[in-house]
Amino acid sequence: MPTSILFQLEHGAVALNGVTNYVVLNCLQWKSPHLEMLASAAKQSFAVIYENELDQELIDYLERVHLQGAMSAVKLIIANDDQLYVFLDGQIPSSALPALESVWETALESDHSNPWRVGFASVDELYTGCSDCIFWPCAKDVLESHPLGLTEFMDSDARPLSNYNPSKDSSTSVHEMAKHLGPTQNEHKQLIDKYLPVSAKQEILRSCCIHALLTDGIRAHEITNLMVGAIFVSHYEYGLAVTRHKTLESQELAQSSQKSAALILSHIKLNDLSDGDFLFPSKYSPERPMSRRELELAIHPRVIEKHLSFLRKRHNECPEFATKDVASSIAHLMGHHSPGIVQHYLSAHQARRSISCLMANTNNPS
């Protein structure tokens, strides 16, 4: 399964037949199917049908499209060889299609290694059987099996997250939890830990935490004012319980996901924060909370894309590090580095060539 910072696995991978599979992914969405800005962020779910294995390059491509705000109308994608069938919400007006297609083409051209040809259609074609895509029966089953599109953020009991109100008596301080946090096996975290200095780790982890909390429906002003001591780890199946102030006199606890909980615990441990600290202090004045501008910069598409590009670059460099490991093994076994082998044979070749030239000059004196 490919890795993604922007998309979370909601369901899958599920086999439809011997070679065809699908997954359902979700993400934070700030645009409507009409490509208009939403009053508040929503959760978008969409399905991807593919054969054999889901390509990392496809996920990377969809992330670039999402960062440009052109995924909001998408309900289902079928990847078949070099063809992408993108099925859109039936409510999207035809006038919005040119702008949508332009963004997808631009995202495709930004990476010349992408081989896909993209075609757009409405999900109504799948429901009515009018689609010329050979996978339409499978696609129709997926559409009917999952609530795809935009939905309100809900918890595992299908309640709005803002209504969740667990008792603090059943919770543990997040600071105490972070002190006992062990290493995780997340692939991105392994790359981050191995190649980044501490300051860069802190920046990336902070952006990931903020993005995850926004995905959970926590409001921006609540995120900027969060104190470490106001966060509790629930002993239930949930993640973190974050104090939400409805008025000056009343408050409730908003629930975040387990993914957000893991990120926040890592963030607290890496930055050595205590209960009296802001969860996201200002970089310019640590005793104050981060400003709204700092929060916007932390989740700006360009910042996220920079983090993605770094991780992909490091991922692509893995063969280079593997080669160095092999070279070290050769050196250990043979007593010298592999370049020494090359130099040895080059020296022998040069010696033979010198002898040949000398004999030629001897046989043909001027």
Compact overview of the structure:
One of its GO terms (molecular function) is DNA binding. This protein is an alpha+beta fold.
Distance N terminus to C terminus?
Answer: 72 Å
Specify the number of helices.
13
**Quaternary state, please?**
single chain
Largest sheet: 7 strands, mixed
Shape: elongated
Q: Unreliable runs, pLDDT <50, ≥5 residues?
A: 155-172, 180-189, 235-239, 314-323, 340-346
What's the rounded overall pLDDT mean?
Answer: 70
Helix and strand element order: EEEHEEHEHHEEHHHHEEEHHHHH
Strand content: 15-25%
Q: How much helical structure, as a percent, in the residues? A: 40-55%
User: How many beta-strand elements?
Assistant: 11
Alpha carbon gyration radius: 27 Å
Question: Which structural category do the helix and sheet elements fall into?
Answer: alpha+beta
Q: How many domain units?
A: 3
